[in-house]
Amino acid sequence: MTCAKTGLKLLSSSSIRRLEDEIYALRMKMEQSYVEEATFGSEKVIDLSRRLDKKINEYMQFRRAWAQQT
Q1: Rounded Cα distance, 43 and 66, in Å
Q2: What are the E-state strand segments in 1-70?
């Protein structure tokens, strides 16, 4: 099913849960990388931070679409 307003595929609660799990895993990887690198400025930490930001944005978009469908 697709949202008429956004054109985004609507997600089930289990799909949203998977996104939450992915966000959690990325956050843990980023935190571990920070501990290993001892700086937020390392390329590894920055890359993980960017990936986490994108995943959070994706989550927020789908969460809004899911809320509108219910």
Answers
A1: 34
A2: none
Give the span between the Cα atoms of 59 and 40, in whole angstroms.
24
- Kindly report which listed range (26-30, 36-40, 57-61, 64-68) carries the lowest average pLDDT score: 64-68
pLDDT band of residue 5 (cuts 50, 70, 90) is: low
Q: What burial letters (b/e) apply to 43-67, b meaning 16+ CB within 10 Å?
A: eebeebbeebeebeeebeebeebbe
**pTM for this model (two decimals):** 0.70
pLDDT of residue 64: 82
Cα angle value 67/22/65 (rounded, 5°): 15
